[in-house]
Amino acid sequence: MASVVFLRGINVGGHRPLRPAALAKDLSAFDVVNVGAAGTFVFRKKASQAAVRSALLRRIPFEVEFMICPGKDLADLVSADPFAREASREGARRFLSVLGKRPRRPPPLPLLQPAGRAWQVKVVALRGRFAVSLWRRVGKRLIYPNEVVEKELAVPATTRGWETLLKIRDRLDESKGMDPR
């Protein structure tokens, strides 16, 4: 089964720099595709999570956290359209946070930060190790979905825009010999 790997905290403000395209090329034995600059990889060749983890640890020159997810879980989430119940909001962007583990006590949803009509982050769904959220620019201090998810769920997370998830789905479809959607 294909796997998707999300690295956490690389290439942030010059800290822990990594060239994802070069890493993907170095992992070609796993038929790896790099998706963006944030450290998102689709391992299209069937491999155990232990083999994927070991290959990454041997090739990344610093300590890094990462989350490995079965490709099917992500493809199923995208197909389910977790934003279907959310009214289209002008200026709101869709995000997915991949959690290091399931939260012990999930809060009631939706979770708004800040609370009220001036929210910037709205966590709308929790599906296993995934938190689905909306983000919009309101006010001067910007709040990013990842900081809300980590604080409120008390677990490490890494967040990607929904467009990245659509690209991942397409790469997974390609690995099955299907046309991208």
Can you walk me through this structure?
The structure is a single chain. The chain has 181 residues and is of the alpha+beta class. The chain folds into two domains: 3-76 and 165-175, SP0830-like domains (Alpha-Beta Plaits, 2-Layer Sandwich); 83-161. The chain is built from five helices and nine strands, in the order βαββαβαββββαβα. It has helices at 20-26, 49-59, 71-80, 145-153, 162-175; strands spanning 3-8, 32-34, 40-43, 65-70, 93-99, 111-113, 121-127, 130-135, 157-161. The chain has a five-stranded antiparallel β-sheet. A four-stranded antiparallel β-sheet has the order 2-3-1-4, with helices on both faces. A hairpin with a 5-residue loop joins strand 2 (32-34) and strand 3. The chain is globular. The protein starts with a strand and ends in a 6-residue tail after the last helix.
Distance N to C terminus: 20 Å
Helix coverage percent: 25-40%
Identify the CATH architecture of the largest domain.
2-Layer Sandwich
Name the beta content range.
25-35%
